[in-house]
Amino acid sequence: MTDKSRGFDTLQIHGGAAPDPATGARQTPIYQSTAFVFRDAEHAAALFNLQEIGFIYSRLTNPTVSALADRINALEGGAGTICCSSGHAAQIMALFPLMGPGCNIVASTRLYGGTVTQFSQTIKRFGWSCTFVDFDDLAALEGAVDENTRAIFCESIANPGGYITDLDAVADVAKKVGLPLIVDNTSATPYLCRPIEHGATLVVNSTTKYLTGNGTVTGGAITDSGKFDWSASGKFPSLSEPEPAYHGLAFHLALGPMAFTFHSIAVGLRDLGMTMNPQGAHYTLLGIETLSLRMDKHVANARKVAEWLENDDRIDFVTYAGLPSSPYYDRVERICPKGAGALFTFGVKGGYDACVKLIDSVELFSHVANLGDARSLIIHSASTTHRQLSPEQQEAAGAAPNVVRVSIGIEDPDDIIADLDQALAKATA
Ligand SMILES: *Cc1c(COP(=O)(O)O)cnc(C)c1O
Predict the structure, then answer these.
(1) Mean pLDDT per segment of 10 residues, for the chain of length 429 residues?
(2) DSSP three-state, residue 346
(3) pLDDT at position 24, please?
């Protein structure tokens, strides 16, 4: 039986992992080794020529990390997956083979706050730039693309409001302009949304969040659909032309649908060094085994909490796309049929001051800059994660001063609601 014929619940436990061939260990061992011994000189040469797959040095590949990469690949339905040190590293690693100085990307305004900063500020140091547009305005999206654009980037369930991107429509635009679509699937996970089935070229995940699910380690993954023709436009010379950084190998010609994956290992991880360590991969392998169970509970709890908030007088609005009142409600069934996730925002009557008081009054919720933990988390984006942004950018990103973001955990939903109730009483007294 191949991985492709197995169901999600099976793949989240067995994908990428078999009993250890050396010892029979049932759980994937932590291969805490920097280097791996070559059988002989010929074996070493074959590995370096990418003629044979194997382990050389853990900056490039490691058996524990590879088991996780293969599991995520099975869950996302990709051609190949590379793990790296964090979700932010995954974003740079996804762009690295596509970009050069003077190139740009077009990204949604609705993004994780750190991604807005990475794309609006930090990537400028590489000579890259980003244009942000509202991805509900497909004409604006297409209009923002120019001859130097190399990718279109959005989140499936987008921060901070849990807004659902119409991936099919965005993928149609990407196809029309001949560019790869990169989807950050962190807030949805492959259990709720499979971006490749909606036309994504590359999927990035911060494994730090739901995939690990217990708030212990940072990590990232890039999954390639294997479906983009890197040679068609001449815009992606690192993949279509002889790569001077890898003794002139033309990756797309030599490796076909695995071109991006191998380039990301042989050049990306080798030279950027944003490597996931085997200990980190181990924690994520443990967490990912229960992904579907946790996500079902996250979604059920989020729905209950969002419904309760929507009916509360102290609240101005709730953005949860799983509520029938949401303008994005009709996208849930098409884009993330198992539920709208567990990340959303709500507006508190009383504005900035009431939000800050609310945050200081919660007892069960943790006030952290994180999401996708088993624990319920809360943050006031305007004073923290989205603090770097201008008031206009905050508004556009759904992080205005009166807005609080929650990531609903898998505790007893009555306890989550009771905590918000007592904190709102203090905040609006
Ligand atoms: C957390 C997060 C990231 C960044 O991931 P790290 O692992 O913290 O680097 C990127 N995108 C989204 C949607 C996130 O939630």
Answers:
(1) 78 95 94 96 90 92 97 98 98 98 97 91 97 97 98 95 96 98 98 98 98 95 98 97 92 96 96 97 98 98 98 96 96 97 96 94 94 94 82 82 95 98 95
(2) strand
(3) 95
Atom of ligand 1 nearest to the CA of 111: 13
C-alpha distances out from residue 140 to 95, 149, 157, Å: 22, 14, 20
Mutate to test the pocket of ligand 1, among 72, 92, 186, 210 (most ligand atoms within 8 A of CB): 186
Which option is the CATH number for 3-98+180-287: 3.30.310.50, 3.40.640.10, 3.40.50.970, 3.40.50.1970?
3.40.640.10
Cα 117 to ligand 1 centre (Å): 12
Kindly give the distance from the C-alpha atom of residue 284 to the centroid of ligand 1, in angstroms, as a whole number. Answer: 15
Q: Which among 48, 112, 335, 95 has a CA at the least distance from the CA of 222? A: 95
Q: Whose CA is nearest to atom 5 of ligand 1?
A: 87
Task: Identify the pLDDT of residue 40.
Answer: 94
Q: Enumerate the β-bridge partners of residue 413.
A: none
Task: State the pTM of this model.
Answer: 0.96
Name the nearest CA neighbour of 84 among 65, 111, 107: 65
What is the predicted pLDDT for the residue at 3?
59
Which SS3 state, helix, strand or coil, does residue 425 take?
A: helix
Distance CA 268, CA 253 (A): 18
> What are 143's two structure tokens?
């209009």
Contact 407 CB / ligand 1 (< 6 Å): no
- At the second CATH level, the architecture of 291-427 is Alpha-Beta Complex (3.90)
- The alpha carbon of 23 and the centre of ligand 1 are apart by a number of angstroms equal to 36
pLDDT of residue 4: 64
Domain locations in the chain as residue ranges: 3-98+180-287, 291-427
Smallest Cα–Cα separation from 150: which of 125, 179, 121, 175? 179
SS3 319: coil
Atom of ligand 1 nearest to the CA of 90: 9
Among candidate residues 115, 64, 55, 59, the one with its CA nearest the CA of residue 90:
115
* pLDDT at res. 2: 52
Cα of 250 vs centre of ligand 1, distance in Å, is: 32
- Does the C-beta of 235 come closer than 6 Å to ligand 1? no
Contacts of 334 (CB under 8 A, 6+ apart): 168
Q: What is the pLDDT of residues 340-360, one digit of tens each?
A: 999 999 999 999 899 999 999
pLDDT at 190: 98
